[in-house]
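Exercise 4. Each item below gives a protein and its sequence. For each, produce the structure-token representation.

Item: Carboxypeptidase N catalytic chain (Bos mutus).
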Amino acid sequence: MFGINRREWKTNQGSEVTFRHHRYDDLVRMLYKVHNECPHITRVYSIGRSVKGRHLYVLEFSDYPGIHEPLEPEVKYVGNMHGNEVLGRELLLQLSEFLCEEFRNRNQRIVRLVEDTRIHIMPSMNPDGYEVAAAAQERDISGYLVGRNNANGVDLNRNFPDLNTYIYYNEKNGGPNHHLPLPDNWKSQVEPETQAVIQWIRSFNFVLSANLHGGAVVANYPYDKSLGHRVRGFRRTANTPTPDDKLFQKLAKIYSYAHGWMHQGWNCGDYFPDGITNGASWYSLSKGMQDFNYLHTNCFEITLELSCDKFPLQGELQREWLGNREALIQFLEQVHQGIKGMVRDENYNNLADAVISVGGINHDVTSGAHGDYFRLLLPGTYTVTATAPGFDPETVSVTVGPAEPKLVNFQLKRSTPQAAPKRRIPNSGHRGRVLPKKVQPRAARKKETMMKQPQRGPA
Ligand SMILES: [Zn+2]
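Answer:
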């Protein structure tokens, strides 16, 4: 849909951000600098604080910053979740400056992107870990994992509530296939940074997301947690696809093929066909962020591993930016595909939390607080059903093309007792039922014993 030659950038070689690493104070200055340069299309906000009290800042781009416009999708980037994996942090600062400058230059592709999309950019989810990693770097202390964790020593990408065990159970035995409920005591089980992110992704109706890491070069898509038990003596774990596997593969490929070299497959001594991998088939991990996004919210998230060297030399940052720039933009544009629309009642009242089901894909999405919904889909013909408690379900057939998202609105009729005798709609309520005690997740007891490739360590 954005058919503009990818080389036609006006600010071609990067920007005034300059290609250097940014400590916390520097990063904050940069975010406000971009905001001051583009005040009408940006907003800086904080979603909470780290263990050491540093803000978790987000820079938002939109033609109406701070406002959700119905039918305009929300998308996010999260960088530097592992404090020592720093390229994503710098790329997101570059991207921020780039969006601002190109918008001011009236680059039509970027103007359209900003006008049609609400973009949230969080350069650092782990500012405390970053400071540790940066200080070690300055003293030339090498250590592969120095600064990875937060200030309490916790790996934030192993810190989200484990919902996979529930979904694997439900897939076999029936039960909700989306918006799985959090454990009652979830806040006491997670770190401040994780809690802030969970509250953030619950309060916006995000549709698409990427989480930027380092230590490999590959686009990694859910699930991250393996369904199969590992066979003793074998390092590889089983490919564990989501019901949206083909869509996730496409999203990952969009990034890898728009990236300078990710798609070539051979990087950092590893080979990944097309530069993509199912997370679990690479190495299984529990309590990761991307699986959580998919299982608890409407958001489809992938994890981007962007550099062999977790803390690249300053001299490499420009090349990395040029290698990632087009991919970062194209990925954002992917939020404009599939179907979207409003769910209303007969009096045109917006219906929040209506469930949108697609025949053949066992993963529903819901309408947001404004009654609008977004369902990413590959091109094809689908049977789509909207349901809401107290209303008759409505089913339509939709053909989705490769470009613009198809607008599919629903106007639901209140069900009358005669017209709608007690019926069970499969996969309807997302309040969900709770898993019986006996199948409490095993992984909750098990710490992360599963690590691939111990010689190199986790990405
Ligand atoms: Zn990482």
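Check: Residues 82, 85, 213, 459 surround zinc ion (CB under 6 Å).
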